[in-house]
Design goal:
The chain contains 4 helices and no strands. It is mainly α and 102 residues long. The longest helix is centred in the C-terminal third of the chain and has 30 residues. It is elongated, with a radius of gyration of 16 Å.
Amino acid sequence: MNESVILGDPRVFIGVTLLLGGLASFAAGRAVASTWRPLWLLPLYGLPLAFAMRFLHWSLFGEPLAAPAAALVAYAWTLAVQGLAWRATHGALVKKQYPWLI
């Protein structure tokens, strides 16, 4: 199957999903970690972000709203970026809070 059928226009995918969604996901991951919340909350925070990315694709660029493959890709990207941000921020907080453990 063709990638453009699944993900739509590559420029829109890069701009909305990878760039805007990645920045929002990074901010969400940092926010969860900086308040000492657990890692298992990230999927709960990532779901609305993935829906928002799909909504932007649909409302601004006329791509299909109910595209399951594109929604799964957006959700996976959200979880990956959130996880990286959470790990980096949580590691820095642990290092600052408990310097004798390192």
